[in-house]
Amino acid sequence: MTTSVLICDDSSFARKQIARVLPANWEVSLSFASNGREGIEAIRAGKGDVLFLDLTMPDMDGFQVLEYIRSHDLPTLPIVVSGDIQPESQQRVSELGAIAFIKKPVDADKLSAVLHQFGLVEHAQAPARQQDESLDFFDWNQEIANVAMGRAASLLAGVIHEGVTLSVPRVHLLEAAELHMMLTTTGQRGVSMVAQGFIGAGITGETLLFFDDSSVPALVKLMYYGELAEAHMDQDILMDVGNVLVGAFLKGLAEQLAIKFSQGHPQIYLHARQDALLHRPLADKILAIELSYQIGHAKVHCDQLLLFTEHSIAALRQRMEIMQP
Predict the structure, then answer these.
(1) Alpha-carbon span 260 to 200, nearest angstrom
(2) What confidence score (pLDDT) does residue 33 get?
(3) Could you give the residue ranges of the DSSP H alpha helices within the chain?
(4) In-domain check, residue 126
(5) Strand partners of residue 103
(6) What's the total number of domains in the chain?
(7) Confidence of residue 59 (pLDDT cuts 50, 70, 90)
(8) Which of 314, 309, 315, 319 is nearest to 205 (CA)?
(9) How big, in percent rounded to 5, are the helix, strand and coil portions of the chain?
(10) What is the separation, in whole angstroms, between the first and last Cα of the chain?
(11) Are residues 144 and 253 in the same domain?
(12) Is 124 a member of any domain?
């Protein structure tokens, strides 16, 4: 009997990766959706007896899809596949009706065990691994950034005992003038910044964390500094949050690339303007990954900008070819 399987994820790389690790002996009719709304339409059309669902998607995220499925009693078995591994997120999707949670990147044995647990596959055969020559470089970078961001958010959530909401990463190339304009605009609104460089296996980059100055007092409360807050506490709190987010993000990124990064000492720039934000020479062309976090119930906003030098782009492309399933 053929099972209709729907893979709903905004990343084409993630959709292909899930499809590749499905058991070889599971007779399925595969469909794909790139956002939640498309996913719901596919389920209504009978294309989703089993649903593999991402959480962090534009337009309609995975949480909203699960809420819709439950409220409209749609006929599907949802299995969440996500880089957002926060315990709060896993508990929430379980309460919304997901039968299982699988973290990204997907492990074939873990997926087969879930399918066996719910009687979907009796004895799973290893998937036939086929290399996909159509792998998109920008989509691949988006997906590995998404997974690394989930690791960082989970660690921070454990520190503050509150959830962290994630954005969909945006990956693009920037000319030096475009980056200069972006940082100038950021500096004009009054921000504080944590900057940290990293290098490994021919890949050189820098990650910048931006916090609006008005959000720092809320960060102090979230990190339980309470009455200990003093005049120098702004710098301490930014250093602590930066160490958690940047450290976990770079570790998650390095694990997916199967390399190790050496990290520079983080630099703090309080109440920075464009002269501080532009403290390093700019390359002619930069690979940029933009993402953001909403931290805790106070919804403290933090932007992260990951910058790779021009010569790193070729090294990243090589890692993509090596690491693809």
Answers:
(1) 6
(2) 98
(3) 12-20, 36-44, 62-72, 87-95, 108-117, 137-160, 176-188, 216-222, 233-257, 274-277, 310-323
(4) no
(5) 82
(6) 2
(7) confident
(8) 309
(9) 45, 25, 30
(10) 28
(11) yes
(12) no
